[in-house]
Write a structure and sequence with these properties.
alpha/beta, about 140 residues, globular, 4 strands
Length: about 140
């Protein structure tokens, strides 16, 4: 098995579930060290109340061949994002090779019942701009 990303460092923001989880695991399969970030942890769920956690994803990254590192981060809080950047920089000698943004938290404000052209425009903008903040 080849590991073309061995020695590379990645951050997957929003790696708890879905596409972010899949990307994190595949980066691990290619040999990368992957910082998996999100708000749902083994110690507590986000307000989305979904069962998937950053620790689960990090274990999957490691099982796939990389190194998974779970870090709880609310990406709507600049101080937490700054702390993540400082941690990665300190632990990886200032190196970050890959950054993936898969942050999503718009389920509570998403209109799942109507086609896109019949949805409220302001709600749509809220989903795109800062879906992870509470309203």
């Amino acid at each position: 098995m080849t590991t073309p990303l061995a020695g590379r460092v990645a951050v997957v923001a929003g790696g708890t579930r879905g596409g972010g989880r899949g990307i994190a695991v595949q980066l691990g399969a290619a040999g990368a060290t992957v910082y998996v970030t999100g708000r749902s942890t083994d110690r507590g769920r986000s307000e989305m109340d979904r069962p998937e956690t950053i620790e689960q994803t990090a274990r999957m990254v490691t099982e796939a061949g990389g190194t998974g590192i779970p870090v709880r981060v609310d990406h709507g809080d600049p101080a937490q994002v700054r702390a993540l950047a400082e941690r990665v920089s300190a632990e990886q000698d200032g190196v970050l090779d890959i950054l993936v943004n898969s942050v999503w938290g718009g389920d509570p404000i998403t209109d799942w019942e109507n086609p896109l052209w019949r949805q409220d425009l302001d709600q749509g903008f809220r989903c795109c701009a800062r879906p992870w903040t509470r309203t």
